[in-house]
Amino acid sequence: MTVAMDKSGGAASNAKHEKSLVVDGVRQFFGTKGAKVHALSRIDLVIEPGQFVCLAGPSGCGKTTLLRLIAGFMRPTEGQITVDGRVVSKPGSDRGMVFQAPTLYPWMDVRQNIELGLKFQGVHKAARGIESERYMKMVGLSDFAERKPYELSGGMQQRCQIARVLASDPDFVLMDEPFGALDALTRERLQEELLTIWRETGKTILFITHSVEEAVFLGSRVLVMSRRPGKIVLDEPVDLAVDGQRLPVAELRSAPAFVALRDKVRDAIQASM
Amino acid sequence: MSINSTAIDPTAAGDNPDEIAGITPPPPARWLRVGKSPWITRLLALVAFVIVWWFLTTPWSWHEGKPIMLPLYLPSIPDVWAAFVRSMTIHPIAAGVDRMVVGEQGYYLWQHLLATLQRIGFGLLFAIIVGIPVGLFMASFRFFNTAAEPYINFLRALPPLGYIGLLIVWFGIGNTSKIWLLFLAAFPPITIATIAGVRGIREDQIHAAQTLGAKRYQILSKVMIPATAPDLITGIRVAVGFAWTTVVAAELNNGIPGIGGLAYASGTELQTPLTIVCIIVIGITAIILDSGIKALEKVIVPWRGKA
């Protein structure tokens, strides 16, 4: 086990997370016959348990569309999405979502927001309390448990959203440019925190971004989508380990392999435009 | 008056310490910013109002010993005060007559007010009980909305005086027809506010709940209803306003006790001082009610305008 993983890395072997997500021949059209928009041309994709998949691509290429299809907010025009062999037809707590604009509920405080998923699932109050404490600590919001979302900064709101999704213990965490609206410094810090959390919890994450740097930094696998109609033009595993040792989060950005991969992904995006 | 002398003072707006050139909007001239508390400004406005009233209703020697406005049109302040005192006490029916009567029309003023508040309270209560579910239904089911919307708009467009006669025929001349009228006046704004509230919910707030595993009834109780609350309170505020403006129409017939009925009856009997007493009491009560709802809003939906 690596230095960066040593805290509670054992979570990665949790059997509950051993589900894979399959996107099978999905195409998506929007609008009526007159003004039809071809959003996604055939997407085939398998996301294995424990992967941190980053999907990068130019704005308007259909990244968010794909994520919303996986979340079950809409049905694909063609093809299907399956989790563990079962077709996705509606949203469910097995696929948690972190939205670009925080969707915290202002009538609840931070703790109530984080416990909401467990409450929906009928978890007992005492057990909810333990979980919310754990995730508030993980995202550094323990001192803000009684605050209302509108009293938090943008970065803290996104931390709270991440904690809310993690607390409800989904098999897949879908993230739609969650750091897109934050300033550069907050953004970098949250990226490092998210990576640490992933190393600790071993969750399967699908993360959408238009930042190449972010994709390579966070992902264990980077996908590049072409512009509309979107299709996947690069599927690259990210292996920044040195001598089989995972690099500490803080040293990743300066690793030579990081720079090389970043350039490769950037070229792929530019070639697709 | 000193107001005039400072108004033309050229330095009035120039030496304001917290004014940063070009950044903060220019503050009102100094003579308008009487203090930090708005209440001082309001008090000054009231004093000005009373002075004008007093000026118009006092007999002046240069005006043939008569006030500028005759008492029948605008009674003097002492006359209005006397009418107010009469309406709150047991007093002789007329000067020099032994027969004593209670307040006005057999009731004290506060009894008139209470009777009206009760009617408004019941009308509003029924409007809330019916209006919110109807609004939720209309917002949730397109068919229901298409079918019901024209009737809501029709009802909203009707002046209450137009159909109070019909309500009396249907429900009698007692309290029932009045409460019906107030209900019909208060019901559309509550329904419309509920619809607006539900439609204004961000789709992703519903999606977020779904991805957290919410069932349908949980989405309704934990997300949709609280998210609609700010609009609902606005709707109730508007509805209370509508109910007040409708209350005189409701109390035109057999409206005693009732402050709207008293205002109308005293007007027809040329008791102008009493009419003015009623108007002042109705206005002040309405303002107090509205402030109460506003205060309640701060407690119930503290996030309003922030999220």
From TrEMBL, chain A:
<protein>
    <submittedName>
        <fullName>Unannotated protein</fullName>
    </submittedName>
</protein>
<keyword id="KW-0813">Transport</keyword>
<keyword id="KW-0067">ATP-binding</keyword>
<dbReference type="GO" id="GO:0005524">
    <property type="term" value="F:ATP binding"/>
</dbReference>
<feature type="domain" description="ABC transporter">
    <location>
        <begin position="21"/>
        <end position="252"/>
    </location>
</feature>
<dbReference type="InterPro" id="IPR050166">
    <property type="entry name" value="ABC_transporter_ATP-bind"/>
</dbReference>
<dbReference type="InterPro" id="IPR027417">
    <property type="entry name" value="P-loop_NTPase"/>
</dbReference>
<dbReference type="Pfam" id="PF00005">
    <property type="entry name" value="ABC_tran"/>
</dbReference>
<dbReference type="InterPro" id="IPR003439">
    <property type="entry name" value="ABC_transporter-like_ATP-bd"/>
</dbReference>
<dbReference type="InterPro" id="IPR003593">
    <property type="entry name" value="AAA+_ATPase"/>
</dbReference>
<keyword id="KW-0547">Nucleotide-binding</keyword>
<dbReference type="GO" id="GO:0016887">
    <property type="term" value="F:ATP hydrolysis activity"/>
</dbReference>
From TrEMBL, chain B:
<dbReference type="Pfam" id="PF00528">
    <property type="entry name" value="BPD_transp_1"/>
</dbReference>
<dbReference type="InterPro" id="IPR035906">
    <property type="entry name" value="MetI-like_sf"/>
</dbReference>
<feature type="domain" description="ABC transmembrane type-1">
    <location>
        <begin position="113"/>
        <end position="293"/>
    </location>
</feature>
<feature type="transmembrane region" description="Helical">
    <location>
        <begin position="120"/>
        <end position="141"/>
    </location>
</feature>
<keyword id="KW-0812">Transmembrane</keyword>
<keyword id="KW-1133">Transmembrane helix</keyword>
<feature type="region of interest" description="Disordered">
    <location>
        <begin position="1"/>
        <end position="22"/>
    </location>
</feature>
<feature type="transmembrane region" description="Helical">
    <location>
        <begin position="232"/>
        <end position="250"/>
    </location>
</feature>
<dbReference type="GO" id="GO:0005886">
    <property type="term" value="C:plasma membrane"/>
</dbReference>
<feature type="transmembrane region" description="Helical">
    <location>
        <begin position="153"/>
        <end position="173"/>
    </location>
</feature>
<keyword id="KW-0813">Transport</keyword>
<feature type="transmembrane region" description="Helical">
    <location>
        <begin position="179"/>
        <end position="198"/>
    </location>
</feature>
<feature type="transmembrane region" description="Helical">
    <location>
        <begin position="39"/>
        <end position="56"/>
    </location>
</feature>
<feature type="transmembrane region" description="Helical">
    <location>
        <begin position="270"/>
        <end position="289"/>
    </location>
</feature>
<keyword id="KW-0472">Membrane</keyword>
<dbReference type="InterPro" id="IPR000515">
    <property type="entry name" value="MetI-like"/>
</dbReference>
<protein>
    <submittedName>
        <fullName>Unannotated protein</fullName>
    </submittedName>
</protein>
<dbReference type="GO" id="GO:0055085">
    <property type="term" value="P:transmembrane transport"/>
</dbReference>
<keyword id="KW-1003">Cell membrane</keyword>
